[in-house]
Specification:
CATH architecture of the largest domain: Alpha-beta prism
Strand content: 25-35%
Number of domains: 2
Oligomer: single chain
Largest sheet: 4 strands, mixed
Structural class: alpha/beta
CATH superfamily of the largest domain: Enolpyruvate transferase domain
Strand order of the largest sheet: 22-23-1-24
Bound molecules: shikimate-3-phosphate
Number of strands: 24
Shape: globular
Distance between the termini: 15 Å
CATH topology of the largest domain: UDP-n-acetylglucosamine1-carboxyvinyl-transferase, Chain
Helix content: 25-40%
Radius of gyration: 21 Å
Length: about 425
């Protein structure tokens, strides 16, 4: 396992861009693959997760080609037009790819077998197989519905109305993708709004999607089934979840002044930046614009004295992937940062609550971790620890960021997984002045 250490670094300075948004990249390939015509995608994330989705869409009949860096084209088969893949669909480390494609396949009269790496094959799938079974698909998997798992798609999928038991954009999206092949209206009711890239892109490709906000923050998303999706160009903005790493690094390394350009700021993704600003972060949104239907800005970030805050549980869906790096920012803040409503962190690429707590402990940071909360007591960060990443890219990147401002180097045991979402992470950070060895 290739390890890497991050050392106390001089001020980070410069302008950088981060790779394309992972969530939008998966969806652009998937929807392009069932649209009629040729979809051109620019800014696509070429991380391993998305490359797995590209390969699986090929196996399902779409023609997916790379024209240049981040520039891809997809010739779709039309809704209902997937072919049965000749071999197993390997989703690698990607829960998003697996769950979204299980939804798409569930609505088609084909059988496909899904597998993934050791991390993905541990993750719960019943959250998608339960609603997709109600739509008529059948599944044979391991205990708890885990991968490897066979999906027998429905010959005549039925539309459903389904209330999500957990706030999950992946589950919502899987149901909507299956609903593409069902007659009538498929409705997903979210207890709390989650990232809406599927809704936005379905609309962009010509589907009829209605979104209605109800009482108590609930949201109803309704898709009219059997649309003819029409190919449409997709411009993918920079991933806010990847921007999070240079942003937090600039905040904690004294003297830093970094601009991260072209960051997607969908309000259902931007919870980390809101939280950091509440903590006293100097983050300026420059050149705000709308690109490819998503709000985008350049973020100028300067080193800041941070203060601990309480992060409301209701914000969790808008920053669910950012708690590991927020915990790092919190370690450098004055006072305690309280993060609540974190149960979903336990079923990400790793048990992120446990992995973050262990990483904090290894580096001398006082904290308290409960079933669904994490409290971090900030102050001087000793560092000097080695962090187990458990095949989780965000654990690796978060603790490398910690090492840049800690008293002694922070080592992560395995950096291979960083390429799933952020190819070029170490080079980009080194370009800003970060010291790794
Ligand atoms: C994603 C949704 C989130 C997030 C993941 C990407 C998506 O997962 O953690 O990285 O693209 O829909 P959940 O839907 O399981 O919360």
């Amino acid at each position: 396992m290739p390890a890497l250490s991050a050392k106390t670094s001089p001020a980070l300075t410069g302008n950088v861009t981060v790779p394309g948004d992972k969530s939008i990249s998966h969806r652009a390939l998937i929807l392009g693959g069932v649209a009629v015509g040729r979809t051109e995608v620019t800014g696509l994330l070429e991380g391993e997760d998305v490359l797995h989705t590209a390969e699986c869409m090929r196996r399902l009949g779409a023609t997916v080609e790379r024209l240049g860096p981040g520039h891809w084209q997809v010739d779709g088969v039309g809704v209902g037009g997937l072919i049965e893949p000749a071999d197993i669909l390997d989703m690698g480390n990607s829960g998003t790819g697996a769950r979204l494609l299980m939804g798409l396949v569930a609505g088609h009269p084909v059988t496909a077998i899904f597998t993934g790496d050791a991390s993905l094959n541990r993750r719960p799938m019943a959250r998608v197989t339960d609603p997709l079974s109600r739509m008529g698909a059948r599944f044979v998997g391991r205990a708890g519905g885990r991968l490897p798992l066979a999906v027998v798609g429905a010959r005549a999928p039925m539309p459903i109305e389904y209330r999500l038991p957990v706030a999950s954009a992946q589950v919502k999206s899987a149901i909507l993708l299956a609903g593409l092949c069902a007659p009538g209206e498929t409705t997903v009711i979210e207890p709390e709004p989650t990232r809406d890239h599927s809704e936005r892109l379905l609309g962009h490709f010509g589907a009829e999607v209605r979104v209605v906000d109800g009482a108590d923050g609930e949201r109803r998303v309704t898709l009219r089934g059997q649309p003819e999706l029409t190919a449409a160009p997709v411009v993918v903005p920079g991933d806010p979840s990847s921007a999070a790493f240079p942003v937090v690094a600039a905040l904690i390394v004294p003297g830093s002044d970094v601009t991260v350009e072209n960051v997607g700021l969908n309000p259902l993704r931007a919870g980390l930046f809101d939280t950091l600003i509440e903590m006293g972060a100097d983050i300026a949104y420059l050149n705000r614009r709308v690109e490819g239907g998503e709000p985008v800005a350049d973020l100028r970030v300067r080193h800041s004295a941070l203060k601990g805050v309480t992060v409301p549980a209701s914000r969790a869906p808008a920053m669910i992937d950012e708690y590991p790096v927020l915990a790092v920012a919190a370690a450098f803040a004055e006072g305690t940062t309280r993060m609540n409503g974190l149960a979903e962190l336990r079923v990400k690429e790793s048990d992120r609550l446990a992995a973050v707590a262990a990483g904090l402990a290894a580096n001398g940071i006082a904290h308290e971790a409960g079933p669904d909360y994490l409290h971090v007591k900030g102050g001087a960060v000793a560092g000097g620890g080695t962090v187990a990443t458990h095949l989780d890219h965000r654990i690796a990147m978060s603790f490398l960021v910690m090492g840049l401002a800690a008293g002694a180097p922070v080592t992560v045991d395995d950096v291979r997984m960083i390429d799933t979402s952020f190819p070029g992470f170490a080079a980009m950070m080194t370009g800003l002045g970060a010291v790794f060895s």
